[in-house]
User: Fold these one by one.
Assistant:
Number 1:
Amino acid sequence: MEHLVTDVAIIGAGPAGLFAVFECGMLKMSSVLIDALPEVGGQCAALYPEKPIYDIPAHPGIEAAELIAQLEAQITPFAAPRLLGRRVEQLAGGPGAFTLTTDAGDTVQAKAVIVAAGAGAFGPNRPPLDGLGAYEATGAVQYYVKRREALRGKRVVIAGGGDSAVDWALALNGIAASLHVVHRRAKFRAAPESAAQLDLAAARGEIELVIPYQLHALHGADGALQAVE
Ligand SMILES: Cc1cc2nc3c(=O)[nH]c(=O)nc-3n(C[C@H](O)[C@H](O)[C@H](O)COP(=O)(O)OP(=O)(O)OC[C@H]3O[C@@H](n4cnc5c(N)ncnc54)[C@H](O)[C@@H]3O)c2cc1C
């Protein structure tokens, strides 16, 4: 349990919170970073460390984990203390004299607070399919790709039509043995450039688009997935 005093308390150590440490440091203000997750990086580190990101200025393409590593390097000179694995549960006081309390009983007294909580607590959007739990338990059904190599040589079905689905389809092209993208609409909601690349990969026969359909059933036994209907 820690009791810290600082100029600025930053709730959330995702990319926004990490860069807030830099901005505070440049203004000669001390800061403390607090995050409910055990590591910094927010969604980038927890959900998609190996996914390439293409919309960061001055980076034509950078993997999420590398982006976080670069942000870490950028804030190293400011040596902001971190309270990780701690969720901020209370905010009391007012401008000039805030007190934050975490679920572990830590307190941080701060003159100002930056809320960089992003999506807050994040969790998967589970499809209503029979027997889903057994496939989740074995990892046959996953909601995030943490390591692309874990899917090398596997037959992969991606369900979804947004940026994540399309980006993962492109990132796994050439790694998975086969790739099907199932989307309930004919048009993908992803960034137009990514959607265009997906169409090109489909035209080359590298990725099969299953549109407009949605997942109906999973077939297999004891959590071993054999087919997707
Ligand atoms: C699969 C996927 C792919 C993506 N791809 C891209 C992409 O290619 N390009 C792009 O620009 N964006 C992408 N995004 C979106 C991008 O990751 C987010 O916009 C970005 O992470 C937001 O950063 P943030 O720092 O604001 O918040 P987050 O990354 O959400 O971090 C917020 C942090 O706050 C912490 N927190 C929340 N509440 C509390 C609390 N009470 N106490 C302590 N800690 C708390 C959370 O634990 C979390 O670590 C993608 C998102 C996903 C899920």
Note: The mean pLDDT is 95.
Number 2:
Amino acid sequence: MFGFEDEIAFVDVETTGFDPARHEIIEVAAVVARGPEVVQRFSTLVKPSQPVPLEIVELTGIDDDILADAPRVEEALAGVAEIVGDRDVVAHNASFDRAFASASGWEHPRGEAAWLDSLELARIALPRMRSHRLVDLARAFGLLVEPAHRATADVETLARLWRVLLGALDDLPAGVLAGVLGVSGGPQWPLARVVAHIAAARPQVGLDLKRLRHERLRKERQCSLKDAREAELAPVPVDEVAAEFDDLGAVGRMYEDYERRAEQVEMARAVTEALNEGRHLAVEAGTGVGKSVAYLVPAARFALANDVSVGVATKTNALMDQLLYRELPALAREMPELRYVGLKGYERYLCLRKLGRVLDSGGGSDAEDRAIAAMLVSWVASTSWGDLDAVNVHWRPSARRSVAASAAECTKKRCPYYAVCYVHGQRRRARQAHVVVTNHSLLFRDVVSGNQILPPIRHWVVDEAHGAESEAREQLSSAVSSSGCAASLATLSARGRHGLLESLRARLGADDSARERVEGLIPLVHETALIATSFFSEIGELVIPGAYGREAERITPRDREEGPWTRAAAVGWALVKRLDRIIDQGREAITALEEASEETAELRADLVGQLTALADAREALALILEGDDERYVHVVRSEQRGQAVEVAAESLLYDVGEALAERFYPEVMSVIYTSATIAVGEDFSYFARAVGLDRLPEGSLATLRLASSYDFDRQMTVYVPRGIAPPNSPRYLEDLERVLFDVHVAMGGSVLTLFTNAQDMETLYRRLAERLRSEGLRLIVQSRGASARRIADEFIGDERLSLFATKSFWEGFDAKGDTLRCVVVARLPFAQPDDPLMEARKERENRVWWERYYLPAAIIELKQAAGRLIRSSTDTGCLVLADGRLSSGAHYAPRFLKALPVSDVELVPVEELRETIAARFGRPASSAAR
Ligand code: SF4
């Protein structure tokens, strides 16, 4: 039974690793709870046959000394078996605990059926939680028993959490539990008994996705705004906007501990003027200026005054969420008429039609897919926006594709869910919103589509503008990938009811004229899939295999004359021809299907979608095979994704600025670009060139550079160690190891080291982790394939922890206070010399490429790295620039150092570095590594 007062067992194990065939249990705990009360307890440490690995010691605090007198695993599990008896047993990620118990000789008397997975239940009962890890759920509900990551405490935490999960399950709207049971795979799914028990006590209602959505949509209002280009626009008085930043103004009222910042007001004034005058503006605002509020207030005032929309585009989801969930709700409280909305690309939203189909097919082919389907059912009932990024699951690409909306597959008004659709609902809301927050990717995709995606927005703020060029390039370029091609062909040709063509054939009568055409497509698609596999395997061979996941190779005119590319190109053209045949025959089938029964209408729309995707792939393929369009740089890229290798052929737009000057600026009245790092010194020319602002008539662009509101000279010290070898020296790693060791020890932890090279990072981690541990310091590394968010959370969660990281931590990573007191830059962030775009620039603009692109890009990236350190007015710390070129007279060194937000840099002999840093920032290391 699974009532709130019933008796149930909980089990947790700590182990030496993840693989039950190689690793062992080192602690096990079990409790039996009756209602809220734990009535029996058992726990013990367990002596393994091998030493406990360092990372496990660090995580759990369990080491070989503590385990010296512990019992063996058989004895420990006998104790567990005794108190569990034949009760149901709950574990968080139960398959893990069960696999270890089973490998060590304990089977529950009722086998797998008795194991209930609280992780799986949490995903269904609490679908909107950002994390479903035991520790995070427990913290969120105030249930955590310390110390976490110890079986004895975790099992108590779990027993408390279980009741919360049952309560949350009971709170789900009518019909959701029926939907969950429908995709669960039947009674053999252990949690089915739990869900069925709760469902039995409630009114019996079946799942209806449309009803669930209607319930959430009931209160929306309708009133579209004007196109600014067709409206008479009234300027907003600049002084009135500035007054909003007074203590009694809107901004003053938004924050409890508000302090007026002169830089923020100056920026707000400049943004207001740009909007009023229909001019473009580039603003570099150092950290702490509060630039998001500095543009949101003028944007909101301008939009409200004129009944138009102002768009805000961000690079990262983190900033988008900050605007949508923090700043804009606070602003809307002060300006009650203000409406705002967040808008992402199709593929970010749940497609209800696809979900309906997944539910009809029983949730998917395996348990993992069914678990996700069950979670999505309850999530539909609790989300207004349908943003799949907010679903906390580890998606397999195929699982996400099976429920994600896609422009190509969307049947729009013919879709039965159109009126309640997330994607179109958001687009409708966007037409009524004064502030539309989107991402760079959708903004530039809209430019490419000729404004087919977004409402007509003529005033834009592009935040995190340092990333605008690269996102615009991604959207203005074209690519065909092995997985994308394979997915489209597989959707067409899969057997049985999962295959589009087979499903169509099954619904067409023998004398239907469309049937023959559909049947003719089936072998053609199979054949094409084989050629596609062969093409991607050929081009995959062209990329020099590397140990670090992602490699790219430029296809030069010379490659097109001889060598392996010519072989691959021959297969590529064969693929183009097959795709042409599929597209032609597919179109004939679509025409014939117009005559067929209503029953095939939806599948016909799907066929249109898949053919559109294949036509796009065909165009991208032909572009790289022809290779004569000089606007592009042609590249083959290969990337390791889990066990699979993704190969893509790309044509990268060389001059993004030119394309934006032609296609974006003529359609808008004002674009305000802003970032903490878009200028080199006082010079905006690198950025202006990158986004095409330099091609506009004189006077159409204003620039503004605002220093940080923080006192960097007081808060940050920059050290450049003198006497270390430059990166091309054989002594480089040895010297860097010394610097890193000294810095970590001097700081007593809380150090973030940023690398440009993953191989260097891993080598130095291997050399230093143990050494630092013996000093009482714990170091982690951003390992390949690991989630950057999880590593960031771990780093932020432990004040003394230090981290070695690569690219994803150079920008956007935010760790305030004592968690991060020192940033080390291991090497100046110059682009890799074999980066295809940089290579092409060097070739095409030989004399100026260094000064125009290579150097400014690296300087801006260094500024980004420095920006990680000081995140609030009370932060203090040091930046260590451990690249020997800075102290050995490289001619560009002063350019890097001058770009930093401090007036002075300390050159310190490497042998004095430790003492110097310790004297200013040192604190004793903790007595033991945790
Ligand atoms: S309208 Fe398009 S995106 Fe929305 S549910 Fe239907 S098919 Fe999916």
Note: The pocket of iron/sulfur cluster is lined by residues 351-353, 405, 410-412, 415, 417-418, 421, 423-424 (CB under 6 Å).
Number 3:
Amino acid sequence: MKVVLLGTAAGGGFPQWNCACALCAAARDGRLPSRTQECAAVTGNGRDWWLLNASPDLRIQLAATRALWPGPGPRDTPLRGVLLTDAEADHVTGLTELRGAAGLKIYAAPPVRAVLAPARAALDRYAPWEWADSLADGGFVLAGGLVVTAHPVGVKVPKYVPDQASTEPGPWVTAYRVEDLATGGVLVYAPCVGAWSPVLDGLCAEAGCVLLDGTFFAADEMGTAVRPGAGQAAMGHLPVTGPQGSLAALARYPGARRIYTHLNNTNPLLDPASPARARVAGYGAEILPDGTELVL
Ligand SMILES: [Zn+2]
Ligand SMILES: [Zn+2]
């Protein structure tokens, strides 16, 4: 299995267009590497590729990745479909870039499929797509020899959904376990995680590589970097550090390659020279640039 990290920033990207914080300023100056919004691509055979989420930067990401270029026929593409982890704007709006592509298959959990119903109807008018339940019993098999199961890891409802309080609780946020039957390689893809859980322990124990939610380094990061009291507890992302953080949990799985993605523009991990980066490296976890290719 090959995995390409198409984008590694949280919603807004890095730098974010309306943010003048020190980190975003450094990215604009070229002192820190810019990052597009979180998205990845995976293949079992090098010919059939599947997107993990569809970021608003998808057009740029596809153009930057030779394996995803169209051909050999004028309208042929190696892209077979998209696996959505949630319905957040930064993970689904890239679907509009794919409109008109024939025969794509889109996997999502039932609440995500339901809230996207108007968008699905609109997209299906350009070319009908197959919309499948990612949580169907037994998982599913992707062209190219990948076996996938989805696992609920969060309940956060996107902000654009009206009447949040009366919205049905459900598996709004999932992680994916992707296994290559030929190599035995297992990828765990979890760019949005509300809190650590036994589900994640089970997934990490079997994984060769974990792509994990690294949105925030510290629990008070939004409040200190942007505006007092902003806090990210309600934003549905567990921090890297702290008693409820992911770093201590990840340390229990030294057998897996552990990579943080979905980095918010406030996150000190964006700076390779930061003490935060040294600390994460000390635990064996990695921060990688856009475009990194992994083999499992
Ligand atoms: Zn996001
Ligand atoms: Zn910023």
Note: Residues 226-232 have pLDDT under 50 and may be disordered.
Number 4:
Amino acid sequence: MAVYLDHAATTPMLGESIAAYTSALGIVGNPSSIHSQGQNAKRLLEEAREAVAASLGCDPIEVVFTSGGTESINLAIKGLYWARNSPGNRRPRILVPLGEHHATVDTVEWLERYEGAILEWLPLDSLGRVSVGAVADAFAAHDDIALVSLLMANNEVGTLQPVEQVVAIASAHGVPVHADAVSSYHRLPIDFAASGLAALSVSAHKIGGPLGIGALVLARSTTVVPLIHGGGQQRDVRSGTQDAPAAIAFGVAAQHPPVSLAPLRDRIIDGVRAAVPDAVLRGDPIDRLDNNAHFTFPGCEGDSLLFLLDVSGVSVSTGSACRAGIPEVSHVLRAMGVSDADARGALRMTLGHSSTEADVDAFLAALPAAYARARRAGFADRDVNE
Ligand SMILES: Cc1ncc(COP(=O)(O)O)c(C=O)c1O
């Protein structure tokens, strides 16, 4: 039986969410319509918004449904940037840590290229944590900061980020902070109201809800310029007929209480260390996501290991992007000071609601042979027969 250890990429839909989704697909009526069928759809949609809001500690009116994490992040970063930049009032600077998800990296780089943004890249330490000192220094040096955007926890190496401290510094200067909580949702407690954040992005398919829906939590006091214009739905922030069935299924997943995956994660970490003593755990060994185990394996290509494990029926990830079939060295590991040679042996195992001890044990059983073969193959740009 196939073993799935790539829940950070996407996790299977929960049975309750599938059931709610399929029955909601029969709903008749646009939630914006005034007739009773429209109002019925609206009621169900708003109940879903309440469920999502309850899971994030925010007010339902602050929940803007989007198509997923990537759209939420684009809306937060571009929307805040545009709202805080007008011809007579320029605040072009964006503070952003190295090692963010590409949804953030590519968005801020787009703003740099087309909208004149100035990017202030904040360094990571060797465990993958953003430097709070660098945030404080940037605020001491500049008074033209539009926003700060950072991960709540790194999606590759699992390290929790000092969001509270960053918000404390930024708030003292009246600058909004956006948190990418896509990989943290249901893995860390999130209390938006208490956080002082201006905006927070989440995605349903990471918590057992459907693909194609997410949310941007936007504090009532925060203004963003919308990406999408149209019928003025959702406070005029995100126009378009709302997807009530997807929202309902999202709401069901949001209410599903997450269980701690730390024991299974530690079983992976201990097992890998026992099987391959040279493998190096990356990210913070303690302050890390409870579903993330990330290692670099010396002397081999993470992709080879991934393919060999796949042949054994175990799905894992290298954690980083693969462009046009060519593996890329992780920008997160680079930012942590890991050499390219070491970073190439990266492998990320992530757990979810359906994970079992048997999954972990099957992975650990397949690992030694896969590693031995991957080492024999060496690096892709060397002669594999050497
Ligand atoms: C940290 C993080 N941010 C953003 C995203 C993008 O979310 P989505 O797949 O919902 O667009 C992901 C997905 O992998 C993620 O892990």
Note: The pocket of pyridoxal-5'-phosphate is lined by residues 68-70, 73, 101, 103, 151, 155, 180, 182-183, 203, 214 (CB under 6 Å).
